Amino acid sequence: MTEVSTISGGKPMPLGSGFALSKGFVTIVASTIALLILCYIFAPSAVSAGSLMGSLPFAAVLAIVGLGQMLVVQQGGFDLSVPGGVSLAVVIATHTANGNDALLINAVAFAFGCAIVAGTLNGLMVAIFKLNAIVATIGMNALLFGAVFAVSGGVPRITTDLLAEIAGGRSFGVPHSVFFALGILALVSFVMKKTVAGRRFEATGANPQMARAVGLRVELYEGTAYVLAQLLYCTAGILIAGITREPTAFQGNSLLLPSVAVVVLAGVSLLGGRGFPISVVIAAFFLNQLSQFALSIGVPYSAQTIVQALALVFGIGVYSINWTGRFKKTNQRSTEEDEHGTQSA
Amino acid sequence: MELNLLKGGVAALALGAACSLGTAASAQDTPSWCGPEEATLALLDGFGGNSWRIVTAEAGRQEAARCPRITEYFYADGQGDTQRAISDINSMAARGVDALVVFGDAGPAVLPALTNAYRSGAVVVPYRVLVGGEAGTNYTRFVGASFVDDGISWGNFIAEQFPDGANILFLSGPAGNSQGLEELEGMRQVLDDSYVFLNPEPFAVTNWDPSLTQQVLSAAIAQHDDIDIIVSDFGPSLVGALPVFENFDRSIPTLVTSDGNSLGCFWTENHENNPDFDLFTIETGTDNVRLAVQWAIAEATGGEAPEAEVFISSPFENSVTGDPNAVQCRDDLPGAIYLSSGVSGDRQAELVGN
To answer: Per the count of CB atoms within 10 A, which of A7, A36, B82, B93 is most buried?
Structure first.
C-alpha cells in the first residue's frame, strides 16, 4: 500500500484563509513565549531592561551568523568556517583600523574583501569540485585562522570609537546591532521569498536534480550560498568588534555550535530546501535568552551547558523525527496485524 | 616538524657587551645564579600567540641575557598544538641543549617528553602549569606560581576596604580551572562568613572571553543590586564588560584583579563618573618565567640556587592608597601590555606590534 508521509521540517500549518505558518515558526515562537513566561516567574532579572540591553547585541550577532549558516544548510551543506570567518573580521576591524576612525572604512572594505575570497573558495570547493562541505570548510577555517594570526599575531587590540558607537551604541533605547540584525533579516527574507533568484535558490536546495533538469545552474546557487554566508559572518564579526571593547583574536570560536543550533531550532531541514529566516532570528533570541535565564537562576556552569544542550536535543527531536508519521505507522501496523489475525482465524 | 627557532638577539648582544667590557665588569654584574660553566638554554612555549606570552618570552630572553655563560638561546612556540609542543621538546633534547624551560600548556601530556629529556641529561624546568610527575624523577624542578597568595592579596585589600563584610562577585576562566580554585582558597583564608560570594560555586565561568564575560556580568548585575566588589583573575577581559553598569544606571563597584594597561586606562577615564569604582591589582605574572630561567641556568652552569622556589605576584596598583603604585595608564601604548612586567612598556609595545 502507498503511504503518504509528511515532510517534518517545512510542513505548512493552515491558518484561516490561505495564510500558512511553518511548523518551525509556530514551535519556536511558542517556545520563546514559554521561556519568557518562565523568566518572569523564576528569574525576573533575566528580562529586565538592563539585562536585555546587555544580552541583545549578542543575540543579534548570533542571528546574523545563523542566517549565514542557514543559507548553506539550505543547499544541503554545512559551514564549519564560521569561527575563522568571524574572527578574521574581528581582527581586521580592530587591527587594520588601529584605533583610527578614519581608517575604519578601509578596514571594513578589507574585511568584506577577505570574506568574498574565503566564500568563493568554499563555493568552488564544494559546488564545482564536489568536495564534502564539512571537509572543505574545516580546511578553510584553518586557513582563515592562519590569516587571523598573520593580521593580529593573536594579540587583541582596542576597537575604534566610531565602530564602538556604530555597533555598540543605542538609538531609541535599542542597541544598534539589533537594527543590523533586523535589516539583514528583512533583506534575506525579501530576496529569498520575493525574487526569482531567491525562489530558485530554495528550489535548487530542495532538489538539485530537478533544478538541473529544468535548466537551473545548480552550482552557481550552491556556491553563492557560501559567499553570502561569509559576508554575513563578516558583518557579525565587525559588529562583535564594536560591541566588545577589546575582542580577542578567537572571538568566533564560541559561535559555531550555536549557529547550527539556531538553524535546527528554526526547523530548516539539514537535507536542504526551504529556509525560515524569521524563525532563525527568533531562535537566536531564544538561545540567548535561555543562557541568560540559566545564568540568572544561578545554576552551576555544568547545568547551564546541559540546559542549552537539551534545547538543541529538543529542537532536533521536534523537527527531525516524524512523530505523527511514526504514530500513524504504528497504529496502522497494529490494525493490519489485527486484520491478518481475523483473516487467518 | 617545523621549529620556530629564534636566536636570542638580546643574549648575543649581552654576550658581546660583556666581552668588550672585560671580565672584571662582567664578573661584577653577573648574578649569583649564573655559574662558571657554559650552557645553552631553550624556552619552550606551548602556545605563544597572545600578548601575555609574547611579553613572557621576552622576559625569559632578557633574564637569560643576564648570564654571559649562556652561549646560545633558543625559543620554540608549540602554537597550541600538543603534538608540536612534544616534538619541540624532543628535538631540543636531541640537539643537546643543556637547559629547557617549558611552559607545559598541555599539562601531563608533555610529561613523557620532559622525562626523556631529563633522563638524557638536560636540566628541565617546567613552570606555571602543573605537568604531573616529580622533581628529581621526571624533571629537575617545577617553578610554580602561588595563586593562593594572589587570593590572599585580594582578600587583604577587601578586608581593609570593607571591614564589615561585603558582597563579592568572583569571575574566573574555564569551569574548574585550578587557578580560580586556588585563588578562592586564598580569599577564603582571609575573609570570614560576612563576605558573601554572589556567584555560583566556586566562581562564575567566563573562559576569560570578553564577550562571555559581558553576558555573565549583565546577568549578574540584573540579578543582584548589591554587588560591592568584583574579583577577576584576568582584569583586561573586564574592560569590555564594565560599561554594562551604565545600562543599569549604577556605578561600577570596586574591582580587584590583575593588571593590564587597558584596564588602568579604563579606570583613569571612568573613575570620576563612577564614585564606587576603586581598583586594586596584582602583577599579572609575566615575570614568573624569570625565576624559572634562573633555576635552569643555576642548575646548568653550576651557579647558586635562587632564593625563591615559587613565584608570588606582588600587589601592583591601589587606587585608594597609591601603595605600592597609583593606577598606571600609558594611553600612548597598546592596551594589551602589562606595565607591571619587568619588560619596559615601550619594548612591549614594539613586540606586540603597535
So the answer is: B93
Chain A: residues touching B (Cβ < 8 Å)? 43, 45-46, 48-51, 53-55, 58, 149, 153-158, 240, 243-249, 251, 254, 291-292, 295-296, 298-302
Q: How far is A169 from chain B (nearest CA, A)?
A: 11
Spatial distance between the Cα atoms of A317 and A153, rounded to a whole number of angstroms? 42
With contact defined as beta carbons under 8 Å apart, do A81 and A118 qualify? yes
Quote the minimal CA–CA distance from A53 to chain B in Å: 7
Residue A332 lies in a domain: no
**Considering CB atoms only, which of B49, B211, B222 is closest to A153?**
B49
Of residues A89 and A338, more confidently modeled: A89
**8 A C-beta contact, residue A197 and residue A187:** no
Q: Please name each of the domains of chain B with its CATH number.
A: 9-145+286-313 (3.40.50.2300), 147-282 (3.40.50.2300)
Show the domain range for A205: 49-319
List the CATH number of the domain containing A70: 1.10.3470
Does B31 contact A at CB distance below 8 Å? no
Taking CB atoms and an 8 Å cutoff, what residues of chain B touch A295? 215-216, 219-220, 223
Strand order in the sheet with B70-77: B70-77, B39-45, B99-103, B123-126
The pLDDT, as a whole number, for residue B300 is 95
Number of domains in chain A: 1
* pLDDT tens, position by position, A210-267: 999 999 999 999 999 999 999 999 999 999 999 987 788 888 888 998 999 899 888 8
pTM for the model stands at 0.80
Query: Which amino acid does the sequence have at A148?
Result: V
Is residue A158 in a domain? yes
* Per-residue pLDDT tens digits for B314-339: 999 999 999 899 999 998 888 888 99
Asked whether residue A342 is assigned to any structural domain, the reply reads no
